[in-house]
Every structure is written in structure tokens, then in C-alpha cells.
Design brief:
TIM Barrel; 11 helices; 8 strands; Aro_Compnd_Degr_Hydrolases; single chain; hydrolase; globular; eight-stranded parallel beta sheet; Amidohydro-rel; alpha/beta; Metal_Hydrolase; 308 residues; Amidohydrolase 2
């Protein structure tokens, strides 16, 4: 796989693109071979802090992963912008992620929040002013939002210029494909759309997302390549086939996320983020597409200012 990465990125040298660094909740220490373009954006990560209470019934309770830890990942990968995503652990209490975004710098970071279905308009406007650009509907776990919440909230979010970020099981996607096709505004499917393996691009889930992509209002976030991969590290070849297919279908609506600190993985099974970054370079297919996924597309979706 490394040879493939070097093949599409001729500007890369055989050395690593950044200094080795130990990063909490990430295996390995070396930086990636692929050099991050200026303005490279990690569109999916979380922070955790035991000083903030978890929501009742939360099933994911990872160890602390703080803004300073994330800065280490940025140095290791060479990214400079990011999108912090409210995890299921904290329900609709967005205070930790908002504080983390402030600590990291609102000029370079945006956020995807979780809100109640009946959230007041004033709260949405407040969050918008703080840098929130979407709401995550994590429908794969019990939580404050359900499939029916999409129909209620999507029009309100679209009016703000926000998007619905959706994480749902393949069965949910099959059952709700009619609803998904009718939702207004922008839709973002994270974690490769949770396309099941080994069916991959032959699955109903993939076909549904492809049809939504063809509508022009749907995005796919290439985050968590390991979540449904059967082939596994370091190549994640099955995830790569899905990624390449999505890139070919909608190159202007693909973004990438590290999913750090990988909350579904135990401390002794965290993936190597530099390897995942290099796999993205492979799957992009060209240096230009690599930059588009990391810089141009996130700027459109999250409203980042022009690079200086």
C-alpha cells in the first residue's frame, strides 16, 4: 500500500512528512508519508473529559482525550483545521466540545452538535454564532434523537445553512430510504455510511447512498475506516474500495475524519492515525483529489474562511 501512496503522490520523499510523536489514543509514533496540504482538515474527532458528566445510559465512556492531546495528533499528521463532533457520551450537553473548540481556536475549528428535537430557535442561533455547522443524528445508539427527529429538525437546520450528519445502521438505512430522499438541506453520512462488509459496494446501503449522492445534496465522510473493515490494518482494502467508489461518484462532496480518539476501540487496540492518513492518500487517487478532500471540500461544507 505504501508503494501505491508514493505512486500517486510523486512529490513525497521516502522520509516521513512530520516528526514522530506519541499521541494519546493513537497507535504508532511516526508521522504519515503523505504530506498534508496547507489547510488540511480533520472533519471528525471528539474530546472526552471526566470532569464533564456523561449522559444517563451512555454506553461509550472513553478515557480522557483533551484538546492538548489533539494538538499532538495535528502535529503528527500535519493538519491545521478540524471539526469537533459531539459524541454520544454527553447527550445534548455540548459544553465540553464547545470549550474544546474554543481552546483549539474558533478561527480554525468548527463543530457538529447534538440538540433536542424541540431545541429553541434562540439556542440554534447561539450555537451558530459559536461555530456549529450541523447536528449529528447518531441513530445507531440509543440517544436523544431518533429517525423521526430527522423529519422534524432537517428543515430548521437547512434554514440555518447547517447539515444533518447521520450515523445509522444498514438496516435503518434500508428501512428509511424514502425519508432520506425527501429531507431538505445537506446530508452527511459519516463512517463511510456504515456500508457493511463483505457486501461493500454490492450492498443495498451503498446503492441508497449512491442515489442520494446523485441528488446533489449528500456528502460522505471517510472516517473510521476500521469500523466495518474485515481486511483490517494496515491496508483496510475493503474500506478502500468503498472510498474509491464514493470519490469517483462525488469528488466534490467527500471529506475525511480521523475519528480520534477512536472511542469504540479499547486502549490496547487503537489504530495508527498516520497509517489511516496514508490510506486516504491511496484512495484519493491523485494529489489533486487528496487536497480537494482535505482542504477544498471541508471549506465548502463547514464555511472555513479562505486560506491565508
Amino acid at each position: 500500500m505504501l508503494a501505491g501512496c508514493l505512486g500517486i503522490l510523486p512529490s513525497l520523499s521516502l522520509g516521513r512528512s512530520s516528526a514522530a510523536e506519541v499521541v494519546r489514543a493513537s497507535a504508532g509514533t511516526d508521522g504519515p508519508v503523505a504530506k498534508a496540504p496547507h489547510g488540511a482538515t480533520d472533519c471528525h474527532f471528539h474530546t472526552y473529559d471526566r470532569r464533564y458528566p456523561a449522559a444517563g445510559g451512555a454506553s461509550l465512556l472513553p478515557a480522557d482525550a483533551l484538546p492538548d492531546d489533539y494538538r499532538g495528533l495535528q502535529r503528527r499528521l500535519g493538519t491545521s483545521r478540524g471539526v469537533i463532533v459531539q459524541p454520544s457520551t454527553y447527550g445534548t450537553d455540548n459544553s465540553l466540545q464547545l470549550a474544546s473548540m474554543e481552546a483549539l481556536g474558533r478561527d480554525r475549528f468548527r463543530m457538529v452538535a447534538v440538540v433536542a428535537e424541540d431545541v429553541p430557535n434562540a439556542e440554534l442561533k447561539r450555537l451558530d454564532g459559536l461555530g456549529v455547522r450541523g447536528v449529528r443524528f447518531n441513530l445507531s445508539l440509543p440517544g436523544p434523537l431518533t429517525v423521526s427527529s430527522l423529519k422534524v429538525l432537517a428543515p430548521r437546520l437547512a434554514a440555518l445553512g447547517w447539515h444533518c450528519q447521520i450515523n445509522m445502521t444498514p438496516k435503518q438505512m434500508e428501512d428509511e430510504q424514502a425519508l432520506l430522499s425527501e429531507l431538505p438541506g445537506q446530508l452527511v453520512f459519516d463512517h463511510f455510511g456504515q456500508i457493511p462488509q463483505p457486501a461493500g459496494t454490492g450492498s443495498q446501503s451503498y446503492a441508497i447512498i449512491r442515489r442520494l449522492l446523485d441528488r446533489g445534496n449528500t456528502w460522505v465522510k471517510l472516517s473510521g475506516a476500521y469500523l466495518r473493515s474485515i481486511d483490517g490494518a494496515p491496508g483496510y482494502a475493503d474500506s478502500g474500495r468503498i472510498a474509491a467508489a464514493f470519490v469517483a461518484a462525488a469528488p466534490q462532496r467527500i471529506v475525511w475524519g480521523s475519528d480520534w480518539p477512536h472511542p469504540t476501540k479499547s486502549n490496547d487496540a487503537k489504530p495508527d492515525d498516520a497509517v489511516l492518513f496514508d490510506r486516504l492518500a491511496d484512495w484519493a487517487g491523485s494529489p489533486e483529489m487528496f487536497s480537494r478532500i482535505l482542504v477544498d471540500n471541508p471549506a465548502v461544507l463547514y464555511g472555513f474562511p479562505p486560506l491565508s
